[in-house]
Structures are given as C-alpha cells and as structure tokens.
Amino acid sequence: MRDGTGFSESTADTRVEKTPLSHLSVELGHFYAPDLELDEHFFIEHFRRIGVWFAAARSAAENANLRAPRISTCVLIDDYFGLPEPPVALIPKLVAAARKAGLEIDYLVRESGCANNVAGVARNPAEPETGPPGLSLAELVEARLVEDPPPNTTAARPPVSHTGWLCNGQRSPATETHEAMKRPTAWRPPAENAAVNHSIFADIELWREEADGRLWSCAMLAAVWQLLRLGLLRDNGRSVAVPHPPPPDLPDNWSALPMVLRINDRAAPFNAYRAMTVCAPLFLPIENAVRTILQQVAVDPAVLGQVSDRAKGEGISLPLEVVDRIEYLFVDTGPVRGADPG
Amino acid sequence: MLVFAASDKGGTGRSVTSCNVVYRSALSGSDVCYLDFDFGSPTAGSIFQINDVTRGVRRGGMHSYLLEPDIQTTGEPHRIDVWTQSSRASLRQRPPGSGKLMLFPGDQDGGEFGPDKEALRRCVHLLQALDEEFDMCLIDLSAGRSYATQLVLEATADPALRGVAARWLVFHRWTRQHIPAAAGLVYGKDGILDVGVRAGHDKDELQAAIKFVRTAVVDPDSIELSGLRPAQVAWLRDCDEDLGQLAAKHQVGRRAMLGEVPLDPVLQWREQLISDNDVVARDIANNATVDAFDDLARKLAADEEWASL
Amino acid sequence: MLILGEVLTAALRHSGGMPRDRVEDALGLLAGERVRTFERPISYAVSPKTYTGVDCRIVARSGAKVRGVGTLMGRACLTGGRVLQSSAVTRIEPVAGGFRQPWSHYLARLGMVEALGRPDLPGTADAHLLADRSSSMMGMGALCVRLLTGIQGSPVLDRKPPVRARRTVLRWAATIKDGAEDVKWHFAVREDGLRTVRLELGPAQIDDIVNLCEDLALHDWLLTALMSIIEQSQIGVEQPAQSVVKLRPAVDHLLHLWMPAARLDGFALSVWEGLESRPGLSRQWDASVRRVRDQMAMAAALVNNRPPERKQLFG
Ligand SMILES: Nc1ncnc2c1ncn2[C@@H]1O[C@H](COP(=O)(O)OP(=O)(O)OP(=O)(O)O)[C@@H](O)[C@H]1O
Ligand SMILES: [Mg+2]
C-alpha cells in the first residue's frame, strides 16, 4: 500500500537511514605495514608535504561559495594485508606527527573493516534484524557490481562475475575451443568498451580464494573505502561503519577497535559529498583500478537520491556519477614504500 | 522425473526405444519431453518424423542452448510439439486425455564438446525448468563415455536438482559383445559410477538408479521363430542361456534389468514410433513390442522398481 | 516515453507454505537489500531490484535498428507462497548523438536504456509485442529466466512443485503521454503460453505499471493452470473419483489465490475493471471453480455410498 493510505506493514519498509555529511573528506594518508614501522620523522615529513595541498583543498572549497565548509580528514591503516604495531603505540605516534605538521587527523580507519563484517555497532534490539547478518562491506559492494557490457551484449549474456575479475571491456578470447573437430579460433586483442580510438584495457582482480577463505584485493578494498567515505553504503537500509570515539585505553589489538575511530571530537562528519585523496603517484595504478571498479558499482538509487536531495537543499552541485565525486592529488609525499609485494 | 538414456555402443536402439517409451507415456496421460543430448548426431527429429528437423535444427537446439547463451535471448531452448508438428498423420491426432509430447532437438552442426562451467550451469537450469513442467524428461545421451554423460552426471549432483528423481537406462543388445560393454560403461573405470561419484553422487544411490534395457532381443520360443528347425531353436536356447550367465557375471543380469524389447520387424527396417495403428490396423509391427514399451514406461515411473536394495 | 517489460510466471518448486524468513532467503537477490513482504490481503513478497547491463540493437517493427546502451531492472515476487514471478523492465530514452558514454553514466540512470540515434518508439513497442516466444527484445526473456531459475534452485525449496505447468511469458509495452487522461489497454493471449499487454497512459510510476502487469500475468497464469488441470482431469470421461484425484492440486494450491488487483489502485484498477467486463477473467475463473467444486461434491456423494474408498481419496 502507498504512503498516505491507512494501512501499512513494517516488513514492507524501504526506507534508508541518513548519515551526517561534510562537504569534503580529505584522505591524508593510506599507510601500509612497511611504512607504518617507520619513526615519527617519516610521518611528520609526510604530513608536512600533504599539508600544503590540504590547505589548497580548503581554499578551493571556500572559493566554491561555501561560507563555512565542513571538511573532515582521515587516514587509512592497513591491518588487512599486514600487521602494524599495536594501536596503543601507533595511533598516538600518527596523531602527534600530524599535529607537528599542522594537521589534525579527524578519523582513523582500519582497512580490514572493509573486508570483515563490522561488529560492535549496537543495533536497536526492538527492531528485528532483516536479511542475512554478517556481511562485510566488500560483499555489499560486490553485490552491487553491474558489469560494463561489451557491444552486442543483451541481458542473455550470463554474468561472468564469479571469477573474481572485473574488466572495462572485452578480454582477448581463449584460443582453444571446447568442441570436438572444430577449428580453433584466432587470437584477437582485448578491447575497452568506451575506447576513444584506442583501447586502454584494464582487468582488475577483486578477490582470490585462498586456503583460509577469500582474500580481497587492495583495489577492491580501496573502492569500498571510497564509497564508505561518500556515505553511499547501507546494509539493509542501515548505515554502516558508524564512527566511534576510541576507548579510553587503547587496546593492543586492532580488531578490538571499531572500524572508524573519531580521534577529534570536534570533527566535521566523516561522510562527505565529495572525497579527495592526496597520495604518492606510486598509488596511481591502484586508484585507476578503484575507478574501474567504481564505474561498475550501481549504488542504491534511494541512497543516491537522498544524498543529492540534501546537496540540493544546501545549494551544492554534485556530479550525478559517483566516480566523479572522487578527486585525487598525486604528489610527492616523501619516500613511501607502499604495500609489500604479493 | 529425469530419465537418462545411455549406451556404450552406438546403434543399440537407445534412441528408438526411448522415443517409443516417451510416446507411450504421453499416451497414458503423462506430460513428457525428449531432449536430444546426442550432440554428435542428433536424430530424434527423424524418429518423431518432424520434417526439416531430421538431423537437428539450424539454430537454438540443445547444443547452442548450452554453448551459446549470448544469442538465446529468451533463455529457453527451441521446442517442438510432436502432436502438432509430426508429418505422420496418426501422430497428429492427439488422443483425449493424453499428455504433452515435446521434443527438444539438437543442432544440425553441433559436435561433441568439453562442457565448461557455464554449460553446466545452463544444463542445471534447463533440467530444473523442464522438471517444473513435465512429469518425465528423457535425455538421450551420446553413446559411450561422452561429454554429454559427464555433463548430466555433474548437473544432477548440483544442489539445485537435489530431490528431483533421476533414473538411468543403459541400453544394450543381447550379444556377447554388448553385455560386457554395457557393464563397462556403468561399472568400469571412468564409467558412469566412477564419474558420478567424482561429481558428488553417492555411489549406492546412483547405482540403484541405473537399470539396463535389452534391445532387439530374439526370443527362441516366439511364434516368429516357429519356422526354425529344432536344432536351430536348441542352439538359440543355448546361446540365450550363455548370455544369461555372461550377463549375471557382469552385473547386468535380471536384477539390474528394467525390461527388454523384442526384435521387431518394423524397427529392423526403420527408426520410427510404433503406433497402435501399426499393430492393429496395419498388422506390421508386433504387439509384444508395444507391450514392451508400455512396460518400460510404467516401470520407469514406478518407485518400487527403483527402491534401493 | 516508452517502457518495455516482460514477466515470467511459474509455480514455486515447493510443496507447502513457507515461513517468512525462508521466503526472504529465496528472494534475497541482492546482498544487503531487503525483501519486502506483505500479509494483507494476500501474502506477497518482492525481491530487491537488480540491474543488468546491455549494449545491443533495439529493433523496430520496420526492421530499423538503433544501438541501445543502459541497464534493465530485474526483480522477482512470490504471491500466496505459491506463484513465483520474475520481471525485466526498462525505459527507452532517445538521446542525440551516436556515442556511448562511460559506464558510470548509465549506472547513474538505472533501469533506463539510452537509444543512440533516432529510434522509432512505436515501432519498437510493436517489435517487442509482436515477436513470438522464440525471441525477446534485449534478452529480457533470458533475464527473467535467469532470475526465476535461480530462485527455483534455492536450497530452501523442496523442489516439489504443487502443479506441473509451463511457465507463461507476458510481454508489455507502456507508452506514457503527458496529456493522456484515461488509460488505453489491450490484452492479448497468444499461442505458446505468450501474452501481451499494450498500455497507453498519462504520467505514472514505473513501479505501478510493473505491479499491474505482474498482477495480470499472475491471474492469467492461474486461469491457464486451472483450465489445463480441468482438461487433464477429463471430467465426464473418467469416473468422478478419478477426475477428483487430478483436480485435487488445484483445490489445494490454486483456488484461494484469485484476488485481482489486490494491491493496486489508480489507473491499474481501471485496467482491471475493463478486463473484468471483457474478456471477463473472473467470470471464467468463477465458472471453472464451480465446475471443480461440483465434481468434488459429486465424487463425495458417490463415495458416501461406498465408504471404503473415502479414505484413499481425501486422506
Ligand atoms: N527392438 C528393435 N528391433 C529391431 N530393430 C531395432 C529395435 N530397436 C532399434 N532397432 C534398430 O536399431 C537401429 C539403431 O537404433 P537407434 O538409432 O535407436 O540406436 P542408438 O543406440 O540410438 O544409436 P546411436 O548411438 O547411433 O544414436 C535402428 O535401425 C533401429 O531401428
Ligand atoms: Mg541415437
């Protein structure tokens, strides 16, 4: 039944929760285990170099006619592929280094939170859980992938997503045939679907099945991370990875912490209309992979509509396409090493 | 119910017998269909006497349904209603109370193929959809250790088909060569049981779902042979007894058998359906042959015939 | 504006009723999205919407072709715990220029296919509606089959369909005209279990049109299934006791599901009102139901004279 008539059933609900939104979220660093071992000087230097561009981002926001822009900052800690030193040591080190470089870290986020299901967010026990519990954010995003179809694709083409790979075009076909006594097909090059004259074909590994379960790729987790920052993820209509203040005593163990820690209690909201990432050019291939993935994620239209209505209400123009809400500055941030090989 | 028709050797009478069994089931009121999974040489169209489809259809047959999903915009394979499409007049009069009789033809230029994951998935979907509609789906497989056989063994092990009865008929002629060959197809290395177990079937359950059918059997005592000299009949009887022992030794004996079809003069000459008209009005086919088909159709559907030991 | 859709209808492969959480498992096509369920006036559950990308020819009746790029919406619903349906829907939007945009462009406009060039929209509607069952515009049929078959294979089902029937296909095309005041519609029953609906109406929500077409497909399927059960029961040829055995699945599983326009309002109601006067679906349904009940009553009366058989028939 419709709204406005006299009868409704709660199990028929389609509402989605709102999350508070900043104008801009600026990522001040995405740190992998090899870099996290380094001493304070490395981080001070890192934040000092980034600070220049952070200031530029702030004045750009002010130039866009925002009287008091709400800007929040965040850093992402890789506790998924590597094992950084315990929170009790690392968090104060990072926060202090940023301060010394004139920056404030508002939110500190654990990357493994994108891959493992987010526990510890107390839900209202009066409202029954709907849907299968225990999904990770990465699974939520994976479910929303709608593959970019090559030319001459009808809906009859079976989804090829069970492979763990996602591309932006057509792969080079396999050259051996399955059929007995049929001639093998000749080699053909891969092709990008939206190619301009020539193809730039990208084939992205999303995950791999390992002996102890699925291992998500760095690109996939980074795509999840960007969507999370943009406030576009929901689990059965509920917000996910809501920020929490750190516990009074920091634990030794990363998994004991909520996924998103609000380090600065006067911070603007974690989620934002737009997201900016300032990082070393080393990360360009990963971010290209992230964009390839995000171009194929169909965000819930209800959530998109909610966000764009609010933007309109604030007089902000927002690109319709999610991938265009993400901006990058590839700058020299000092001698980063990035992720371990493999 | 799914019924898979297999044989080790070609030319055993697998297709002709299967078509006739399906036809008898339809006459008795069941909704039935026949799937031509003999990818190398799909010929069911000619047995049902569907013009233009005697060697399979040009497009949209079983083969392209499984292998070329992209062009099948409906997600459904081509089907032919035998009651309306057969060129044989006596078939076109669908008797009241009879069930559907549908042919899913093969493709003209299909070939044997190594099924990939997608073909397997589509095979599962197909069998699932047809099980929604038909009381019995008979799948005619290529002879021998074929990809088709492997494909359906894997498909029926899929959780989506759990709970759907699947029965196997292994056809063989009543000869010294055919008996061990049929046994080999079922019990031998890389045979149906081997491959089935590898695909995830329970061995005993699968074995209980496999029965043998003897085709073109000569009965030494039949009236057709009454013209034979006593010495010849005696010799035939000896052979028959020998074969009986051979069959028992190879686990193809009476207990593993669902039925036998006598040698029929009409089938000897032509691959076709035997209508009641052929037996009664035209008196060219034998009553015993039709009885044998009826008997097979009945036993196929009778759960007690298939209870595991 | 032109909206095209296709609905596939089948009996759920499950012998009895199912609790709500099982239904939600079966219809949960998209992780993290809710299955919506209703209990009144008839139980009804609908899956979240899913999307599939296409880049293919859109053919008009004249044979003219344009390239269409975008997404089809797919969803599934279950009515009365018995009848399962899947739908494919998209809006055809003509755009100038012949270039395909980056894929994110289309994902920002879900459920829409942009026709590059100058499409012949009325001719496209015709091509969609007049094709026979062996071909389906943009692969909509294949999408419906994939959604429905996926659900039918769900482990929460016992794979025992209450009735054996062929899936029916209903194809529809809705033309929305801003000025239009009343609804024009045409419902056609074609061979091969194919039905078509042509709609012409003023501004309307696509979801409401989908709901209407699914409701039409549902009731057409019920009627088709009931008629075929009655035919196979050979009333008047077989003994009543025999006929009744064959009629029983209809009584157990179908008769209570007839509830036209149960969750519809607005223009959809007026389409149903029209359908009730001609061809008069409910009249045909009521007459068939009466026939079934008469057979049951007669069989019961006969059995009452011969008590031993009673148990076997109604036990
Ligand atoms: N009961 C029978 N009596 C006499 N001839 C028979 C009998 N059954 C089948 N035949 C004949 O045997 C020949 C082979 O039959 P059929 O084509 O059915 O075999 P098949 O096992 O399907 O062969 P293939 O492997 O080539 O598909 C045909 O000519 C057929 O008419
Ligand atoms: Mg054959």
UniProtKB/TrEMBL annotation, chain A:
InterPro entries: SCO2522-like (IPR049747). This is Uncharacterized protein. It comes from Actinoplanes cyaneus.
Automatic annotation (TrEMBL), chain B:
Keywords: ATP-binding, DNA-binding, Nucleotide-binding. InterPro entries: P-loop_NTPase, ParA/MinD_ATPase. GO terms for molecular function: ATP binding; ATP hydrolysis activity; DNA binding. One of its GO terms (biological process) is negative regulation of cell division. It comes from the Bacteria. The keyword Plastid does not apply. SUPFAM superfamilies: P-loop containing nucleoside triphosphate hydrolases. GO terms for cellular component: cytoplasmic side of plasma membrane; cytosol. PANTHER family: SEPTUM SITE-DETERMINING PROTEIN MIND HOMOLOG, CHLOROPLASTIC, SEPTUM SITE-DETERMINING PROTEIN MIND HOMOLOG, CHLOROPLASTIC-RELATED. This is DNA-binding protein. It comes from Actinoplanes cyaneus.
From TrEMBL, chain C:
It comes from the Bacteria. InterPro entries: SCO2521-like. This is Uncharacterized protein. It comes from Actinoplanes cyaneus.
